[in-house]
User: Fold this.
Amino acid sequence: MNKTKNTTPRKVNPLTSEKFTGLEVTSPKTVAAGIEAVKSALHHIAKEAGMVRGNRILLKANQKKGFDCPGCAWPDPQTRSKIAEYCENGAKAIAEETTLKRVDPAFFKKHSVEELSQWSDYELGKSGRLTHPVLLKADSSHYEAISWDDAFAMIGQKLNDLDSPDEAIFYTSGRTSNEAAFMYQLFVRQFGTNNLPDCSNMCHESSGTALSETLGIGKGSVTLEDFDEAEVIVVMGQNPGTNHPRMLTALQSAKKQGAKIVHINPLPETGLVAFKNPQKLNGWVGSTSSSALSDLFLQVRINGDMAVLKAILKLMAEQDAQGGQKVFDYEFIKQYTTGFEAFLEDIEKVNLEECIQQSGIDKALLEQTADLLSRHNKIIVCWAMGLTQHENAVGVIQQVVNLLLVKGSIGKPGAGTCPVRGHSNVQGDRTMGIWEKPSQMFLDNLAKNFSFTPPQHHGYDTVEAIKAMYEGKAHVFFAMGGNFLSATPDTEYTAKALQNCQLTVQVSTKLNRSHLITGHEALILPCLGRTELDMQASGKQFVSVENSMGVVHQSRGHLKPASAHLLSEPMIVAKLAQATLQNSATDWSTLVGNYDQVREHIEATIPGFEQYNQRVRQPNGFHLPNVARERKFKNGQAFFTVHPLPQNKLASKEFIMMTIRSHDQYNTTIYGLDDRYRGIYNERRVVLMNREDMQEFGIQSQQKVDLMSSYEGVERTAPAFLVVPYDIPKRCVATYFPEANVLVPIDSVAFKSNTPTSKYVVVTINA
Ligand code: SF4
Assistant:
């Protein structure tokens, strides 16, 4: 490969600014949403998009002929509110995308990457929408405008100069539509590699691995309608009030039908304490009592979930053994499962006292929970990063599956698994083939439908991709959306990895830190947003996405694009393929001219998409097949599994740190500096700490401290955090990401899924 001659590395800061912004702390909120959520949503939309224009845009959000909210992947109800089928954080995500502020070539002329890297992530994100493709030359510190054709020619040249296609990495963030994702993986595989890491590697990969092994499908089994049939809903390691707010509506409705809600989390998250539904009158006026949500709250220690589950299963097994009404569904176990005996033997050996110690949950509460689950058979368990980003994540999620299997709570109304996805189309991207470990069937279908031989060896996932760039094994990094640097662990290590590259390319809508920590040369390719009109040769186009419950539906942008120089993601892929692939048999122009063509190819390649173009035009889209929901388990059997308790030993001065989102944040996008539900305002450099621990360590409220982690002999430091006394179990602390990602070791990953352990980092606090 013709390497760009080494240039003086740019003095850029991979970490967000350490400047404090003026912390204010109040007591946490006792009720979520309500009128305050409406005020906050209107504040953000008016500030960014203009009150009238903004509200006109919001009317299209999550509507059947509208655009899919670019926020999380919570499904839309069959019957939608005509005036507001979105939540506060959906409105913030839409405000970010429809902002009137612009980042154009003049902006880059004025601001060098060195200067911009001193800005906070919040300030970067608030600069506005990118308007033109821009290039950062090797010997320059300012991006400058470049034509699209020159940009694609440059990328094509760099890619073809590589000694092997495996020296290139093609990352995907979960907002990419099905059509763009399918074209992207097709281009990458025709180029010759499976290096297709995605944001799922860092979030629900542990769920995919755990569920595929036990139930034969890596996706959740429930539908939204199941919530109204459920008798018990367990919410573990998830904060829906901030990360999936419309889920609170489903929980409130389920509760009205008599469901009991169990909340298991180290933090008493407001969204599960009480909820005022702004779409209902009592959501604006009247007492809080009417909207209490969780019936039981188990404030578990970080990574105490295995201990909670094993204790509950032990207590249920004891009840079952007492004769009389059977607690376990033996008919289901006999007909649909294997491995029950080994599982039961392990559970009967459980040392309850040890589980109480590890979980921090007292016996009475464990018994209450076990009793509730014993008396009901329609159980849904929901979870998110609080379960997936631990070393034993796959085991914990399989213990959740054990709990549902003993109750026959898989594949019937009101029951099943519910891993709630964070990004609006992260599940769809995986279904489209965005995966470094594609199935043989998928590769064979591609070969058959596109007359080429796809690469057969697996590619790099996200952690492996970072290491490959760090070790100089990969030289070109291409990201379809996202903010790779800030979303990934071990920020300084990842920064060096990206800076090792010859070329880094980011397809983006807005400015972020990954545009500043680059390869020797860098390109930013600005694309259309979800809300924007996408015109192609055959006219207006719509794209499709798949939500957390496997519903595929359309998303139509209506807004005039933020700039005349933007391209859609599918067009970017088509142009890239034409500039890179010498003898591709694929007619990329025709494909991108009418997305129906892309969907026809998807239908021919991926099972479950029969009559794709017809069914996606149905008002509510269509459900993909789900072997767990249909009890068509692989080989007809679901698997019980056996998992040990973790051995979490802490030294005297050590704490377990988990990274979390604030209420004014969506992944690495910072909407604002407040975390209203937790009573934290105007500051992100905070560490939430137990009051007794503060006393024991002589630490005062709002005292400035440094956080350190030491892993396999490597020290990492995150300087300048303010201590906030908070209701969190002893020796557990919480910080926001990306600020604390610098402490997450690149080698600290979940067993089997290789997901970074961002929810379990052993730290010390230097006061
Ligand atoms: S719940 Fe998620 S998808 Fe729905 S409006 Fe809110 S952020 Fe958007």
About this structure: The chain has a mean pLDDT of 96.
